[in-house]
Amino acid sequence: MTVRRVMPILHTGAAQENRDFYGMLGFEEVMDLGWITTLASPSTPAAQVSVVTEDRTAPVTPDMSVEVDDVDAVYARVRESGAEIVHPLQDEEWGVRRFFVRDPDGRVLNILTHR
């Protein structure tokens, strides 16, 4: 398994203000679904941060995303470990396959692969 990127997800009630702030630091918008916006460094595209008001397709909003090369293999490994699956493996309309798992400290991770 290869980790392609790790991205913090900032929960906010001030989405535009956060987009403006991170834009001032050099990040540019690469995705905006209305409820989540992802900003990336133009010179290092894997350096990203997402600003989210809520997750509209899952029961909770994750704290971090981890993009992997084979989400199905990671899902199988996580299930076998007994870790808490918070949101089942599924394909999303914006082109990712993902699931959520809770880490030992209670943070929710969004594990995904782009399709």
Brief characterization of the structure:
This protein is of the alpha+beta class and 115 residues long.
Present the secondary structure layout:
Layout: E1 3-11, H1 15-24, E2 28-32, E3 36-40, E4 48-52, E5 64-68, H2 71-81, E6 85-91, E7 96-102, E8 108-114
Parallel strand pairs: 1-4, 5-8
Antiparallel strand pairs: 1-5, 2-3, 3-4, 6-7, 7-8
Describe what you observe in this structure.
The protein is of the alpha+beta class and 115 residues long. It has a single domain (3-114), classed as Roll (2,3-Dihydroxybiphenyl 1,2-Dioxygenase, domain 1), CATH 3.10.180.10. It is 18% helix and 43% strand. It contains 2 helices and 8 strands, in the order βαββββαβββ. It has helices at residues 15-24, 71-81, and strands at residues 3-11, 28-32, 36-40, 48-52, 64-68, 85-91, 96-102, 108-114. Strand 7 and strand 8 form a beta hairpin. The longest helix has 11 residues, at 71-81. The mean pLDDT is 94.
CATH fold field value: 2,3-Dihydroxybiphenyl 1,2-Dioxygenase, domain 1
Low-confidence stretches: none
User: Strand portion, in percent?
Assistant: 35-45%
Oligomer state equals single chain
Q: Compute the number of strand runs.
A: 8
What is the CA-atom radius of gyration, in angstroms?
Answer: 14 Å
Main pleated-sheet profile: 8 strands, mixed
Helix content: 10-25%
CATH architecture: Roll
Number of domains: 1
SSE order, one letter for each helix or strand: EHEEEEHEEE
CATH class type = Alpha Beta
Structural class: alpha+beta
Strand order of the largest sheet: 2-3-4-1-5-8-7-6
Classified in CATH, the superfamily is 2,3-Dihydroxybiphenyl 1,2-Dioxygenase, domain 1
**Global geometry:** globular
Compute the average pLDDT: 94
| Number of helices in the DSSP assignment | 2
What is the CA–CA distance across the termini?
A: 16 Å
